[in-house]
Amino acid sequence: MRIEEGVELARHTTLGTGGPAKAFARPESQPELEELLRWARARSLGVAVVGLGSNLLVADAGVDLLVLKLAGELAAVEIEGDVLRVGGGAANAVALHRARAAGLGAFEFACAIPGTIGGGIWMNAGAYGGDFAGVLERALVATADGSGWLTAAELGLSYRHSALRHGQVVLRAELRLRPRPPDEIKADVRELNARRKAAQPTNRRTFGSVFKNPDHELSAGRMLEACGLKGHRIGGAQISPKHANFIENANDASTANAIALMAEARRRAHEQYGIRLEHEVEFLGGLELPDL
Ligand SMILES: Cc1cc2nc3c(=O)[nH]c(=O)nc-3n(C[C@H](O)[C@H](O)[C@H](O)COP(=O)(O)OP(=O)(O)OC[C@H]3O[C@@H](n4cnc5c(N)ncnc54)[C@H](O)[C@@H]3O)c2cc1C
Q1: Which of 59, 161, 221, 232 could bridge to 245 as Cys pair (CB 3.0-4.6 Å)?
Q2: Measuring CA to CA, which residue among 190, 236, 203 is closest to residue 60?
Q3: Which residue's CA is the nearest one to ligand 1's atom 8?
Q4: What is the pLDDT of residues 262-271, one digit of tens each?
Q5: What is the pLDDT of residues 67-109, one digit of tens each?
Q6: Predicted TM-score (pTM) of this structure
Q7: How far is the CA of 123 from the centre of ligand 1 (A)?
């Protein structure tokens, strides 16, 4: 069990911001993970997992937590019949590649979601009409008190939300897919990726959608665009000129820059539309947006 100190989390987020973790480890098996959870509990240290950091804003000052990155068998992908057995740390891209090779469809929606299975379940990631709730049978979740299987219903998956809390680690999951010819899967993925590339800043460092879509005729992106925020910049962070619900690391941005941009965007959307935008990105390390 190797525990490192002061690992910079900027290396583990797609935005490329965030300070050091008090403790950092890469468990490769269930016993190793459970030992780490007990180690943290004995020290009253909170625990959080980082997947590919593609939906994560980490405080510049760092986090007083044990941060885990799942590896080895906790990131493996196996196929049994039409069930994909995946480690919580497996990248969606790898899982999709294996599913396609085995002639299993229904996971195509994840082709452009640059995260892991655990991160996808945590926030019920989805796109183009599909989401994890639609394929997840059950997940093995570990805590310092032990591990157990939870069904999709027990995980409370809804729009970009689950009932999971830090300290609960998705070790493994079972996704039920459907037989589909690999060529059809490939063609669908190509089309979805092209749609994505046309609408979003796919060649920039971002953390995906900043805000959830509000209950309004305008999506969050259209609303922020109408507020004149495209290209708005604070420090090294800017609202994408291509899609206003993305924040780009334009030049050595900090998390504080991104938070300041988010606060400004919320303020303007509230002023102009009376809407309180809710952030989709996850915060780590005591980050907060000011009240409206
Ligand atoms: C260019 C781009 C496009 C994107 N498009 C989409 C999209 O179309 N749809 C969409 O829904 N999202 C999208 N996202 C956001 C992001 O990719 C997803 O939310 C993804 O599921 C996050 O996975 P991750 O492994 O990177 O999680 P992280 O960002 O590392 O973590 C997110 C949360 O999950 C928790 N977590 C991660 N792994 C585990 C685990 N094993 N056990 C318990 N908790 C865990 C973390 O602690 C954190 O709270 C996009 C992001 C980018 C950068």
Answers
A1: 221
A2: 236
A3: 127
A4: 999 999 999 9
A5: 999 999 999 999 999 999 999 999 999 999 999 999 999 999 9
A6: 0.96
A7: 7
